[in-house]
Amino acid sequence: MPCIQLNTSVKMSDDKKTAIKSKLGKAIELLPGKSENWLMVTMNDDVTVYFRGRNDAPAAFVMVGVYGREDGRAFDALTASICDILNSELGIAADHVYVQYAATQHWGWNGGNF
């Protein structure tokens, strides 16, 4: 049950959002046992992002929530992929992207919890 929340200063067209969603759907497979079939993606674009005290360059904050245990190597690979996606699709430099991970043993869905 992964969820990726993207917050970026870049304004995105619907086509761009769809392209990013599709690429994130492939990238989530870098985490063992995860797939686009259970992935939820939320996107907030055109938000004010200050990074290093300035807001003059495209930037993004990405939160990745997963059900299960942490996997540092898989998280490293996913961070690299997310940065590549945001650079190729939105022109955001990797050094202007933060990715936060939250692994949990409690995840609710369909009126219950796993």
The backbone outline, from C-alpha atoms, is globular
Q: Determine Rg (CA atoms, Å).
A: 14 Å
Distance between the first and last residues' Cα: 10 Å
**Count the strands?**
6
Poorly predicted spans: none
Continuous helix count: 2
Give the % helix. 25-40%
Largest sheet: 4 strands, mixed
Describe this structure in a few short sentences.
By secondary structure, this protein is an alpha/beta fold.
Provide keyphrases for this structure:
114 residues, alpha/beta, four-stranded mixed β-sheet, two-stranded antiparallel sheet, 2 helices, 29% helix
General description of the model:
Helix 1 (14-27) runs antiparallel to helix 2 (72-90). By secondary structure, this protein is α/β, with parallel strands linked by helices. It is built from two helices and six strands. A four-stranded mixed β-sheet has the order 2-1-3-4, with helices on one face. It is globular and about 40 Å long. It has helices at residues 14-27, 72-90; strands at residues 3-8, 40-44, 60-67, 97-104, 108-109, 112-113.
List the helices and strands and how they pair.
Layout: E1 3-8, H1 14-27, E2 40-44, E3 60-67, H2 72-90, E4 97-104, E5 108-109, E6 112-113
Parallel strand pairs: 1-2, 3-4
Antiparallel strand pairs: 1-3, 5-6
